[in-house]
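Model: Ready when you are.
Researcher: Fold this.
Model:
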Amino acid sequence: MSRVRADACPGVFAVHDAADGPLARVRLPGGVVTAERLRVLAACTEDLGDGDVHLTSRGNVQLRGVRGEGLAGRLGAAGLLPSPSHERVRNVLASPLSGIHGGLADVRELAAELDRELCAKPALAGLPGRFLFAFDDGRGDVAGEGADVCWRAVTSSSGVVLLAGTDSGLVVPRAGAVSSLLTVAQAFADARGAAWRIDELADPSALLPDGPREVPQVRSNRADPTVGRIGQAVGVAPRFGRLTAGQLRVLADFGDAVVTPWRSVLLPGGADVERLHEAELSTDPSSTEITACIGAPACAKSLADVRADARALVPVGARVHVSGCSRRCGRPSGTHHDVVADDGGYRVDGRWTPASGLADALARKARA
C-alpha cells in the first residue's frame, strides 16, 4: 500500500494540532491506571489542558487544548511515560473484566509484561502508532476490536493468536503469549514497507513464528457490560467519554481503575454509587449506547456540532455513533447505527435526514 503522508498518530511528544489546540494522547496499556495517576491526569488537564480528560476507543486518554510547557515531565514523573521513544506504540488492549468477573484466563499481567518488553526493544519503537496488541481472556470482548495481533485464551493456560481479528491457528501457551505477539510485531516491522496495519499485508500469516497449529476457528465475540455493578466492581460511563478533573478525583478516591475500549471506567474495588451519581457519573448500562466524536468547533473537519445534536437523542436499544465527517473518528467496532453529518443534516445508515429528524429516524429503525 502506498502512503502519501506520514503516520501522524498523536502522543505526548508529537501532539495533534486540533482546532481547539494541541491534543496529547497518553497510552494506558491494558487500560490500567492507578489512583495516583488519575490525580496526576486531573492536575495536568486543569493546569495545562481544557480541564477534561477524554477517553479513547483503545482504552487510552487524551488531553485537549494543551498549552504551556511541562506536560511530558509531569506525566513522566508519574510513570505514565516509561519510554519516550516508545510512547506512541504502547497500544495494548486487555479484557477489562479479566481477573475480576468471568473469563477463562487472567490476562492483566500479560498486558503489563508486554508493555515492559516492548519498551525494552529499540527496534519496535518504529512501529506505526496505529499498531494494536490485545489479550483476550476468552470471553471474546477485545478479540472483536480489530487488534493487529491478539492472544485469545481458549483454556486457562493456552490460547490462539489472531491476526487482524482472524484466528491464525497458531496455538500458544499463556507463558509464551507475550513473546509470540512481540515476534509477530517485529516481523511486521521488518516487512511492512509503507503499511500501518497487519491487514494491509498480502500474507499476514507469513509473520507467524513456528509452533503447533490447529484448524482456525470462528469464535463468537461479545462485549460484556462494563457499566453498573459487576460482581464487586462498579463501572461508570462518562458522557461521550469526557471526564472532568473533579470526576477523575472522585474515581481516584475509590482506588485504581481500568479504562475500557468502550469509553467506560471500571472500578475493580467497588465504589459508593450514590457518590458517583452526585458527581454525574452514570452507572446505567444504556448510557453507553450513544457515542459521538468531538465534532465542531473542536475539530475543523467536522460538519456539525455532533455532541450537541447527540445530547438530544435517547437510547433506542442499539448502539449509535454520531460522526462529524466521513472519517467517523471513535466509532465502535461492533454493530451500530452509523450517523454521519452531511449537507445540513445527517446520514443515518446511509439515508439522509435533517438534524431535526435525527431522533425520529433512529426511533423508526428501533421499531423496524
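Researcher: Now this one.
Model:
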Amino acid sequence: MPLVALTGGIASGKSTIARRLAEHGAVVVDADRIVRDVQQPGSPVLTAIAAEFGERMLLPDGSLDRAALGGAVFGDPEAVGRLNAIVHPAVRAESARRFGAAFAADPGAVVVYDVPLLVEARVDDPWQLIVVAHAPADVRRQRLVGLRGMTGAEAAARLASQVPDEARLAVADVVIDTTGSLADTERQVDALWESLGDRIAQRAGR
C-alpha cells in the first residue's frame, strides 16, 4: 500500500509527473481539487471563511470568490495562517478518506498525493516516498509568463510567496528535473515507477 507524496513549486511540472504516474496505474489524489471540494457552497469550510474574512468572499450564487479571497490573504502571512487554520484540517480529513477508499478498492494500489503545500503543511505525515518536481526559478518564471499569461512582476510575486526550492529539495527522496523536454521528464517518471519498490525500501531502511 505505497503512499507517495508528490510536490513542487508553481510551474514545476508537477501535474505532468502526476499524469504520467496515473498512466502507469497510480491513483492520484489531487490536493487542489480537495480544497475546491471542501469549499463548496454550504460547506462548513466556506461558512467559516465567510465568517472570518467577510461575506464579500462569496459570489452571488453562494460560491467562493477565489479572486477576492486571494486578494485578501496574498502577501499577508497572518491572514494566510488564519485561512490555513480553516482549510487544512478539512483537507487533511478528506485526503485521508480518499487514501483509505483507494486502498480499500485495491490494497496493492500506489496512491500518489499531488500536494503543492507539502513542506508547509504535510511534510511529517507518514509518506513512504516524497517526490519533488524541480526546475530553476527562472525557468518557472518563464513558464508562468509564456504559458499562463502572467506579467513578469506577477510571476516573480507568485514564486516569492512560496517556500524556497531548498526547503522542498531538503525533504525529497526523489527529484524529477523538469527543465528539459516533456520526453525527458517522462523518462525520469518511468524510471521512478520501475524502481518504486526499491526506493521505498531504501527510505524505510534509513
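Researcher: Key takeaway?
Model: Residues 77-105 form the longest helix (29 residues).
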